[in-house]
Amino acid sequence: MVQERTLPTFQSPPAQISAEEGLMIYEDMILGRYFEDKCAEMYYRGKMFGFVHLYNGQEAVSSGVIKALRDDDYVGSTYRDHVHALSAGVPARSVMAELFGKETGCSKGRGGSMHMFSAEHNLLGGYAFIGEGIPVALGAAFQSRYRRETMGDDAADQVTASFFGDGTTNNGQFFECLNMAALWKLPMLFVVENNKWAIGMAHERATSQPEIYRKASVFGLPGIEVDGMDVLAVRAVAQEAIARARAGEGPTLIECLTYRFRGHSLADPDELRSADEKAKWQSRDPIQRFEAYLIEQNLADDEVLKAIRQKIEGVVEDALSFAQDSPEPDPSELYRYIFAED
Amino acid sequence: MAETFLFNALRQAIDEEMGRDQTVMVLGEDVGVYGGSYKVTKDLHGKYGELRVLDTPIAENSFTGMAIGAAMTGLRPIVEGMNMGFLLLAFNQISNNAGMLRYTSGGNFKIPLVIRGPGGVGRQLGAEHSQRLEAYFQAVPGLKIVACSTPYNAKGLLKSAIRDDNPVLFFEHVLLYNLKEDLPNEEYLVPLDRAEVVRPGQDVTIITYSRMRHHVMAAVKPLERKGFDPEVIDLIALKPIDYDTLGQSIRKTHRVIIVEECMKTGGIAAEIIASINDRFFDELDAPVLRLSSQDIPTPYNGRLESLTIVQPQQIEEAVEKMMQLQV
Ligand SMILES: Cc1ncc(C[n+]2csc(CCOP(=O)(O)OP(=O)(O)O)c2C)c(N)n1
Ligand SMILES: [Mg+2]
């Protein structure tokens, strides 16, 4: 048996937040959680189809990073993309409608669960093959630098955040892109969501150096390990990386130690992860932790948080009925969107 | 008019387009300081600078993906494959992302991207550097595939490809870079979706593309002397194929021979024959004949190599044989 990596004690000071920011982040995390719970319910009731990868447990990463970005920054995701899309501002209605394959979905029902796209929100999209989204995100980051330096566009200081899993860091595209991003000092965040598993492959069984953040050093960029169950810790690290990127000081690799509370996808029987392991991580639920923090710091009280939860329940219900009531794509448009002119 | 090598015609196309549109840039291995393996980007690095003529590390999959991301966000990148064969490493990005992403995203993004470089069977370069890849890519939805064959069309087509809002796979042929031709001094474009009638004729339609166009034209000379009058069509667009032009010709000649450099199995001709049967079967006086290269890795040995690809002599014989068929 490989030894389990012990969680380090984290030193990064939590991000300083106002009550308003705290509630904004809390709402985003709740939205991510409730949205995914609704997906599971719909899937198990036979109303939603395909491969559906849920994000429960990892909310601190999406909310911690994306809510520290500007609206015009870019986000690149994977097949586990619903919550990244929500954090990036894509309305719950469009994400849910996409899951139901409807014309009103953010990818017009052509993409599905693993392919959420929104040009309007600079969401570069969900990529179903592991690793392939990293170079695409690198291209967006390159584009920002290109516009600024060769086209004299001073406003082109956007940062690109690329999200992917621990398993993906064993793929060549990860290393190739670390190299190019550092070489060309591109404004990019490589955000690894290390949830310890790649389907049934335990991280320690797949990699010679399980501490992924260390892999940055050989490419000459900062690599930072952060508690991925602590949204403020993630936010603090992200803010620093974003500031560096925006200032033209180059990319950062952020390894978030996190855990998914459900199986790999809703089709996964999830038999390999021990009950012990699951219970241990469940006790570190990022939402409960953040709730406790908000109350402890007098940034919110029970009533306010409850009101947010109720509001989001409504948002998710509304998204669901919107999705269910929306029209299917028109069969006469089967060939639409193949070419740019269509 | 100025006599211009094909490689230089391509270079002029890139230079002109970079001059006209700041979002156009080139990236690839040795495209910058070195000027490109076939000198297609010679001196452009000095003229346009580091970022617009970007020397990349040898990471085909990732720099192709990067070009796609840059295209999605508003640039118009030109990726040079040092040899088109190396783009096999980027097959995933070309297929999943360049080809399919616009559709998968429901039209959220467009991908104005050109992927160009030397393809085809060279002279004793061995199997890996003498690939016939166009057929591998033809099934990918969302890609346009173009093969240039003369300095004139190389320049006009590349300019059109750079201005096109879709991903274009642009095949050059490693043995055609030193073709020379007088090119107009004024600017011109050649459309990406039109086949070129190289020689009008009445007897038989010979459909071809890339270097095989020149083999076909070499065979046409003796055929003319023997009194035959073939029509030669250079496809130019390998995807989507210009069936309008093919149809016009077939309605006139009623006989078709396809000459290609790619392999027979699953080749460009295989696809065209199936489509001709769908569209123009009633027009045919004889079964469509195809001359393809052999279904083998390209051998190094010179004699075996020439046996692998179609030679002018075979084209001549095929035309004579087809014209003997009575209907
Ligand atoms: C190129 C490729 N190979 C295999 C797969 C199948 N697959 C989907 S997810 C996955 C595991 C990825 O694990 P990780 O990167 O840790 O992300 P996580 O699912 O844990 O978020 C695999 C092997 C794939 N999608 N793409
Ligand atoms: Mg994982």
From TrEMBL, chain A:
Gene Ontology biological process: pyruvate decarboxylation to acetyl-CoA
Entry EC no(s): 1.2.4.1
Domain Dehydrogenase E1 component span(s) in chain numbering: 29-331
Oxidoreductase in keyword set: yes
UniProt keyword terms in alphabetical order: Oxidoreductase, Pyruvate, Thiamine pyrophosphate
SUPFAM superfamilies: Thiamin diphosphate-binding fold (THDP-binding) (SSF52518)
One family name in Pfam for this protein: E1_dh
Gene3D superfamilies in the cross-refs: 3.40.50.970
Catalytic reaction equation(s): N(6)-[(R)-lipoyl]-L-lysyl-[protein] + pyruvate + H(+) = N(6)-[(R)-S(8)-acetyldihydrolipoyl]-L-lysyl-[protein] + CO2
Keyword match Ion transport: no
Major enzyme class: oxidoreductase
InterPro entries listed in its UniProt record: DH_E1, PDH_E1_Alpha_Subunit, Pyrv_DH_E1_asu_subgrp-y, THDP-binding
GO molecular function, one term: pyruvate dehydrogenase (acetyl-transferring) activity
The protein's assembly and partners: Heterodimer of an alpha and a beta chain.
Function: The pyruvate dehydrogenase complex catalyzes the overall conversion of pyruvate to acetyl-CoA and CO(2).
Protein name: Pyruvate dehydrogenase E1 component subunit alpha
Gene from which the chain derives: pdhA
UniProtKB/TrEMBL annotation, chain B:
Start and end residues of each Transketolase-like pyrimidine-binding domain: 4-179
Xref: Pfam families: Transket_pyr (PF02779), Transketolase_C (PF02780)
Required co-factors: thiamine diphosphate
Annotated signal peptide: none
Highest rank taxon of the organism: Bacteria
Entry keyword set: Oxidoreductase, Thiamine pyrophosphate
GO MF annotation list: oxidoreductase activity
InterPro entries found in the cross-reference section: THDP-binding (IPR029061), Transketo_C/PFOR_II (IPR009014), Transketolase-like_Pyr-bd (IPR005475), Transketolase_C (IPR033248)
Protein name, UniProt field: Alpha-ketoacid dehydrogenase subunit beta
